User: Fold DUF306 domain-containing protein from Acinetobacter qingfengensis.
Amino acid sequence: MKKMMLFAASFGSMLILGACTTTQSISGQNNLQILQNKNWILAQIGSQPIRYNAEKTPATLQFSADHQRLSGFDGCNRIMGAYQADQKNLNIGQVASTRMACLDNHQIDIAYQQALTQVKQYQVNHQELNLLDAQGNVVLKLVSPIQPR
Assistant:
């Protein structure tokens, strides 16, 4: 009876540990893979949350792995530029944009583009992306809706 209980406990422990290992390898994408080729929606500039209503198109950002190019929308204009990234560091080159005149966007476009110039690092956790300055402060927080594989 003791052997049977010991076997059951050992087997249960192996299943639990095996499940943890399997889960890690399934979601074992590295930071760079999660960062790239995903549509990120601006949620916060510095400590200021961004609120959207049904009439506003959200500010976005995408990092293309193929060409090391970024693109998106700053709440008023389309933006584009180049970037270099590794597992932790992110250097964004000069960002260009279209020049539409936008009323009542609370100058999100200006603050967004200024914050992009400060980005030196990033942290990504599944559906959340934090863009950090050289001191590790969050300058932009973006989220990604669940996307099909």
Notes: The longest strand covers residues 78-85. The chain is about 30% helix and 30% strand. The chain has a mean pLDDT of 82. The helical segments are 2-26, 31-35, 108-118.
